[in-house]
Amino acid sequence: MYKEYSKYLKEKYGEKVYKLPISLKETNCPNRDGNISFGGCTYCGDEGVGFENLSANLSVKEQLLKNKEFISKKYKAKKFIAYFQSYSNTYIPTHLFKKYVNEAVLDDIVDISISTRPDCINEDYLNILKDIKDNHNLDITIELGLQTANYKTLNKINRGHTLAEYIEAVNIIKSYNFNVCTHIILNLPWDTIEDTIETAKIVSVLKTDFVKLHALYIEKNTILAKQYINNEFSMLPLDDYIEKVITFLEYLDPKIAIQRIIGRAPEEFTLFSNWGMSWWKIKEMIEQKMKEESRFQGRLFTYTNGKALKKFD
Ligand code: SF4
């Protein structure tokens, strides 16, 4: 029905591969420290959307080894992705970035994955990663938050960048032959189904490699939480989210691997999270509906390479 990232990894590396999250204490975000704005994205909490991580006071190597020991024991895992997850990891001095990413070059690491914002991409950081790729034969993935192609919604959630910065960032990253993973929030209350479709088309034509779909959750003590309490918007019903995920997948290039179709958020930190249901139950509901309605990823991927034309002459 859709191309699952876990299967993609298994095919590529010959066995299951696990992500090891890393936090850096120096990382911040230009959308929080005043460089672009002080407020940050309206939904952003204190941890910069990385609540599952170990303490940033541990070194990169310590975090990797600790997580690796735990995951190896639990799943008998042998291959890993070093995942720099919190905040914007290409928004630190380049000498520190170089030190940290090089610490992540360990024998059983197959990919270094860097989460950041589209407006924090520049060649100084990419050249450091290129050296690692060339010298150690590792894959490099850059995770970009786009959230939606609707630049008016991007403004409403105070992303601090528009669609153009995302397009430019993907083009630069692709010129290095790195992978791109794009984060999308599919139930932003200001987006319509047309925005969902356009977002799927944009990430497909830009040849992003992976997507990570999330449902919007409302973390306590955020700007979004205040707006929610003041009834400035209401959350869409679960059925809408399910329909948007399926429509998104139908328009998506079938070659793109899906890292997640629903995110996870701990209930104790949120006012609203996944309609009070577990993420895996929602995943099951999406898959069930796709099966019942014979819908699948790429079913409506008919808009590239001249395929949208009805007649050619
Ligand atoms: S880009 Fe990420 S870290 Fe920065 S404000 Fe937005 S959600 Fe928070």
List the topology elements.
Blueprint: H1 5-13, E1 17-22, H2 60-75, E2 79-84, H3 94-103, E3 109-116, H4 123-136, E4 139-147, H5 151-156, H6 163-175, E5 179-185, H7 193-205, E6 210-214, E7 218-219, H8 223-229, H9 238-251, E8 257-260, E9 270-272, H10 279-292
Parallel strand pairs: 1-2, 2-3, 3-4, 4-5, 5-6, 6-8
Antiparallel strand pairs: 7-9
Helix pairs in contact: 3-4, 7-9, 9-10
The protein binds iron/sulfur cluster.
Tell me the distance between the termini. 35 Å
Relative strand content: 15-25%
The strand count comes to: 9
The CATH topology is given as TIM Barrel
Principal-axis shape equals: globular
CATH superfamily: Aldolase class I
Q: What's the number of structural domains?
A: 1
Our count of helices gives 10
* Mean residue pLDDT: 93
Largest β sheet strand count, sense and barrel closure: 7 strands, parallel
Q: What gyration radius follows from the Cα positions, in whole Å?
A: 19 Å
> What are the low-pLDDT stretches, counting only 5+ consecutive residues below 50?
none
Bound heterogens, unique: iron/sulfur cluster
The sequence of SSEs as H and E is HEHEHEHEHHEHEEHHEEH
The SS-based structural class is: alpha/beta
Which percent range fits the helix content?
A: 25-40%
CATH architecture annotation: Alpha-Beta Barrel
Question: In which order are the strands of the major sheet placed?
Answer: 1-2-3-4-5-6-8
